[in-house]
Amino acid sequence: MSDKIALITGVGPGTGAALARRFANGGYRVAMLARDGERLAALQSEIPAAVAFACDVADNASLGQALDAVEAEVGSPTVVVHNAVGGAFGNFQDIDPAILERNFQVNVMAFLNLARRLAPAMTARGHGAIIATGNTSALRGKANFAGFAPTKAAQRILAEAMARELGPQGVHVAYVVIDAVINVPWTRARWPEAPEAFFIQPADIADEIWRLAHQPRSAWSFNVELRPFGETW
Description:
- The protein is 43% helix and 19% strand.
- By secondary structure, it is an alpha/beta fold.
- The protein has a single domain, classed as NAD(P)-binding Rossmann-like Domain (Rossmann fold, 3-Layer(aba) Sandwich).
- Helix 1 links the parallel strand 1 (5-9) and strand 2.
- Helix 3 (60-73) runs parallel beside helix 4.
- The strands form two sheets. Strands 3-2-1-4-5-6-9 form a seven-stranded parallel beta sheet, with helices on both faces. Strands 7-8 form a two-stranded parallel sheet.
- It starts with a strand and ends in a 7-residue tail after the last strand.
């Protein structure tokens, strides 16, 4: 069995599915995690090298059971991409604090739990990659982002702490800021008049994460920002 194994969380119709395809096309066996079992099953039928594991990453017991199954059925991942995201928008006085707590569980605690479980095998091998997909909210807190931005900022700082600890042990940790609107059906519906150049393509995000996961050790990146050429920033 190949030791090229990638685990991807948050495998939906956009970036997650594109990542699964990219790593499968690159010769990896891919463990796909998400809550929607039916969607995962459909994607598994499309990508022979991918295996679906339905779970809620915010529930540590559910995540642990899924990781047990991944290691038993696929193997120990050499690349982990935490793409699952919990998001909500609203004024800080109006949002339900429970929503912020839920988003923290998805964005931060699930990332921590993944790394705690899977990094030891990577350090034992002396190589591996752990990557989180983020967005501009990891860098600034805008109005109506109080239920989301604090969790993405914490996720980025957690990734940086992990990178400083795991890098000398041969494990590359990186954070990808996606400063763009991703081209998926619901964003197309929200911005029906937007030109093609307005959107970032999931396959292009996946290509960049693939390159990031395979950077030479003498030139590792940590903070990586992606945006369309026309994006105002």
